[in-house]
Amino acid sequence: MGLWDRSYTGGPQRKAGGGFGVGSGGSWGNTERRDPFAALTPWVKRLLVINFAVWALMAIGLIPWSAARDLLAFSADRALTRPWTLVTYMFVHAGFGHLFFNMLALFFFGPPLERSWGSREFIRYYLVCGVGGSVAALLLVNLVGTAPMVGASAAIFGILLAFALTWPDAPIYLWFLLPVKAKYFVGFLALMTLYSTISSGRAAGGTAHWAHLGGLIAGWVWLRYGERIEMSADRAFGKAKRARRGLKSVDRDGKAEAKQESRRPSARRRPKSEASSDALDEVNRILDKIGERGMDSLTPAELEFLNEMSQRKSGPDIKH
Fold first, then answer.
1. What are the phi and psi torsion angles at 174 (to 5°)?
2. 3-class SS string, the chain
3. N or C: at which end does the chain have fewer Cβ atoms within 10 angstroms?
4. How far are the Cα atoms of 10, 78, 234, 295 from residue 47, in angstroms, in the given order?
């Protein structure tokens, strides 16, 4: 199953207007506003706030660097005793420059993907790529050592990859001046990352190139096989839940029979409030897409969803 077979990509609509970078004209299309932050999407805003907040707390001393290094940074030799660091390391940065350039990339490349995919798929992908960086550190521990690792770079490299695969010919403005097509820019970064990982090893000059490589690989695997992985996980967790609950019945002859479920676990009805929130998020995403690209950009599934919502607009499920 390829990238364009996945349900949230909506087909190979690969044109993107404008370029990325301050003063480049932007790529916000019809959503461009005087206030640049108005174009930010929900999870991009949250990620920016969280990362800058953690840095600020460390800068003023409320979170000492020694504590952040010990409790939040990822190190391969402590992965079993501090498993949460597989995720938390990506919200800690070694300095303002490290934080600034990661968040600058998220600011420009994150919103188009979140608007195209939806918020849930976007944050899921972001975290998968981030965890991919820590997994790479585990797999390459004999090459790169066990030095503590921090930063969102693995997740950001995954975002760059997804952007380049979705809009390969979109111009990225290096130093806000030189336009380079996204596919060439990200391809060059990938080659340099692979070379740096192999050649530098432990002497990487303080840069975890292997984490960048892990983010790229995890992103590619998720885009290529993510839907299959999710379906396999649903089946596995569904079987585990049924086994834990002991969903068996005994007939009159004393024979154990497996209790059949009428629906898959993942298809069970969710609470009305959650379903309503999901519907509103999807409606908002589609309306943003219409504002940017017009009605012609909608996929058949999105048109069908809008039609269904319009027919149910008087119902309680889609009210604020």
1. -70, 130
2. CCHHHCCCCCCCCCCCCCCECCCCCCCCHHHCCCCHHHHCCHHHHHHHHHHHHHHHHHHCCCCCHHHHHHHCCECHHHCCCCCCHHHHHHHCCCCHHHHHHHHHHHHHHHHHHHHHHCHHHHHHHHHHHHHHHHHHHHHCHHHHCCCCECCCHHHHHHHHHHHHHHCCCCEEEECCCEEEEHHHHHHHHHHHHHHHHHHHCCCCCCCCHHHHHHHHHHHHHHHHHHHHHHHHHHHHHHHHHHHHHCCEEECCCCCEEECCCCCCHHHCCCCHHHHHHHHHHHHHHHHHHHHHHCHHHCCHHHHHHHHHHHHCCCCHHHCC
3. C
4. 25, 26, 27, 30
Inform me whether the pLDDT recorded for 204 exceeds 90: no
Q: What's the pLDDT score for residue 240?
A: 63
Report which of residues 209 and 167 the model is more confident about: 167
For the entire predicted model, the pTM comes to: 0.67
Q: What is the CATH number of domain 13-229?
A: 1.20.1540.10
